[in-house]
Design brief:
The protein is mostly helical. It folds into 2 domains: 387 residues, no CATH class; 123 residues, Serine Threonine Protein Phosphatase 5, Tetratricopeptide repeat (Alpha Horseshoe). Helices cover 65% and strands 3% of the residues. It contains 28 helices and 5 strands. It is globular and about 100 Å long. It starts with a helix and ends with a helix.
Length: 683
């Protein structure tokens, strides 16, 4: 076909053109409805059962929850549609926690999205492949983890699934019906742009799909109404957010009360328009390549574990054997654009924190991979029709396998790690103190506890990553804001603003604490439990005799703080749960070391808390606790600890020596001599 004929077929239809026959759908309308409803109901029950009961463990969940409850403005691009729907959802009389209601909202949104995905795949293949592929997609770790937390990706996946469904309907529809479908798609696309801008990344896949699936002699279905519908559905949520900003809520990123601020907010100027975050500029292209490798490994390991990911290969085999389907181009296009392509564009390092952040964006590629899996299942059944009963049984067990493997990795049922860790940290900070809160999760939880729960009004909280913004300094006390402004004007930027705040508060007798400060500050920090206390110089540091009572008080506060949920470290848990448990372990370890000389009883209790949380018995934990038991002449307890340490490291000299001393103290010289011989035999 010549280029001019191809372009004419795409954009122009003459009276002489012959219409191509519409593609025949292999599923009835009843089948489509049954698949959609059954998938939605199943995931509604599954996601609702596994949602977090309070603030979930995820990057922005605390900030987004707070913004929805108080009608605030979260970080750019603001997610105005999510905030508006979230405010309505948290009015429902379900549960006592606003955070729980918003978690349920995201679970229901994603369950509805899986229903639309099931309907889409039913139109593309047949009911059985559609159901199996939808179940595998919804129970992949990337999507399931977004269904149990308050995050913007659940709504994004719902809108993207609706666009998938409209695209397949458009392919099977007559010209008049296509105009109605394109109008609906314009509205959904406007909602997408009023929510999360990464929907733009899907444009190439949908455009190519439309060109391939249009059919000769058929219209696209565009009309003059498409543009105003698109613009209005995008602009109205942002207008509502500007109204919220005029009310001066406590959470008011960038104070979008002027056209210029609203424009910069929409374009994500503070993060760098077109960038995931400024950190991507600090690394060369190898960071993105490493992310691509990690993504491909996780597709086979977590998202579609063996043998499910083999079906992806079958779908590729079907494409090259022909006939080449436009749907295959759409599904694989979405999978590649939101997977490897986005990994290269994001260019984030391979550290676990950044991988967890990137995984949220990879969820969109799971919808495309789910479509490819459905086409692969359909091809397997067609190619092996004589063994179809055996294949039906085997394929039916794949969703059960995915559920069993991924439940412990995704479920946050009964887990309160984020709230409990933050409450414990803040309670160790005395009144008339400033807490410099670093990290996405801790800062969001602090906002939730302050503005939604009304707690901790007697302490000052400072977010180091925001002190450079005028809109943030307006939230601080006048003196602190002026100190930050003067420090920033002197050429110090964020570091200068923070140092100005530290100097100002230090002169007025305020205690300064931080949990995770990445900006270098002149002075030094002493670890006290979960936090570090700041001292401007060595002379102002505390004497050891004065430090011990404070450390003992901090231990009692931490030990009495609630720890609800599973606090046994497990590699299958998500990043933020393990992060919170690690904070507890590090705090108790540090307190045990510092109190071992002066308060051995307290140090033993601290080591016991560490032993309860460690994934496997730690050599240091049981050796140190055994030594302290020996000092207190608790030889039976010391004996038990040294035996565990010897199991961890059979050639451990300290453990053998501890066993010898304990048996001698208990009067059992026979066993002492046996371990003495074992000690002497070591090289």
């Amino acid at each position: 076909m010549q280029l001019k004929d191809f372009l004419r077929d795409l954009f122009y239809r003459s009276k002489d053109d012959v219409k191509a026959a519409l593609p025949v759908c292999r599923s009835s309308r009843k089948d489509v409805w049954l698949v959609a409803l059954s998938c939605s109901i199943f995931f509604l029950l599954l996601y609702s059962y596994t949602v977090a009961p309070s603030l979930a463990m995820c990057h922005d969940t605390g900030e987004l929850t707070t913004a929805c409850v108080i009608q605030g403005v979260p970080h750019s691009p603001g997610y105005p549609l999510f905030v508006a729907v979230g405010w309505l959802a948290q009015q429902l009389p379900i549960g006592s926690e606003p955070a729980y209601r918003l978690n349920l909202m995201c679970a229901w949104q994603l369950a509805l999205g899986m229903g639309f995905l099931g309907a889409t795949l039913c139109l593309a293949t047949r009911p059985f492949p559609a159901v199996i592929a939808t179940l595998l997609t919804g129970m992949s770790t990337a999507i399931w983890r977004q269904a149990v937390v308050t995050e913007v990706f659940a709504m994004h996946l719902l809108l993207l699934s609706v666009l998938f469904w409209l695209a397949l309907l458009w392919e099977h529809s007559e010209d008049v019906r296509r105009r109605e479908i394109v109008l609906c798609a314009s509205f959904v696309l406007g909602c997408c742009l009023a929510h999360q801008h990464i929907i733009a990344l899907a444009a190439p896949a949908f455009v190519i799909y439309g060109a391939l699936a249009k059919g000769r002699g058929r219209c696209w279905g565009f009309s003059w109404l498409n543009l105003p519908i698109l613009l209005l559905s995008m602009a109205l949520p942002y207008a509502l957010q500007a109204y919220f900003a005029h009310q001066k809520p406590p959470l008011n990123w960038e104070d979008v009360t002027t056209w210029g601020r609203l424009r910069d907010h929409f374009l994500r100027k503070s993060y760098g328009t077109g960038l995931l975050n400024p950190a991507s500029l600090n690394y060369d292209h190898r960071a993105g390549q490493a992310q691509v490798t990690a993504y491909l490994i996780n597709v086979a390991r977590n998202y579609f574990p063996f043998p499910s990911f083999v079906l992806l290969g079958w779908s590729i085999d079907r494409y090259f054997r022909g006939p080449r389907s436009a749907r295959m181009v759409l599904f694989w296009g979405i999978a590649l654009l939101y997977g490897p392509v986005f990994a290269l564009m994001g260019n984030q390092p391979s550290e676990e924190f950044y991988w967890d952040m990137m995984e949220r964006f990879y969820t969109s590629s799971m919808l495309g991979l789910g479509g490819a899996v459905a086409l692969g299942i359909d091809w397997v059944l067609q190619s092996n029709w004589s063994h179809r009963r055996f294949l039906f049984v085997c394929l039916s067990f794949l969703p059960l396998q995915a559920c069993v493997l991924n439940y412990s990795k995704c479920s946050q049922r009964g887990q309160y790690h984020a709230v409990d860790a933050t409450i414990a940290m803040v309670h160790t900070v005395p009144i008339r103190s400033a807490f410099v809160v670093g990290g996405d999760l801790p800062a969001g939880v602090v906002d939730y506890l302050r503005y939604v729960k009304g707690e901790f009004s007697d302490r000052l909280f400072i977010y180091p990553g925001m002190v450079g913004g005028t809109w943030y300094r307006e939230r601080l006390p006048v003196g602190v804001a002026l100190a930050a402004e003067r420090g920033g004007k002197d050429g110090g930027g964020q570091q200068g603003a923070l140092e100005g705040i530290f100097v100002y508060l230090g002169k007025r007798g305020w205690n300064l604490y931080c949990n995770n400060l990445s900006v270098p500050i002149r002075g030094f920090f002493i670890r006290q439990g979960m936090l570090h206390r700041f001292y401007p110089d060595a002379k102002s540091g505390p004497l050891k005799a004065h430090l011990v009572p404070e450390l003992k008080r901090i231990f009692e506060v931490l030990d009495a703080s609630p720890r609800r949920g599973n606090y046994k470290m497990d590699w299958r848990q998500n990043y933020w749960i393990r992060y919170c448990i690690t904070q507890w372990i590090d705090a108790f370890q540090d307190l045990a070391h510092q109190l071992s000389d002066s308060e051995p009883e307290v140090a033993i209790r601290a080591w016991s808390r560490v032993a309860e949380m460690e994934e496997t018995p730690g050599l240091e934990t049981y050796l140190q606790r055994g030594v302290l038991h020996s000092r207190l002449k608790q030889h039976k307890e010391a004996l038990a600890d040294f035996k565990i340490a010897l199991r961890v490291l059979p050639r451990s000299r300290p453990a053998l020596q501890g066993l010898i001393n304990s048996y001698l103290a208990l009067g059992d010289e026979t066993k002492a001599r046996r371990y003495q011989k074992q000690l002497e035999s070591l090289p």
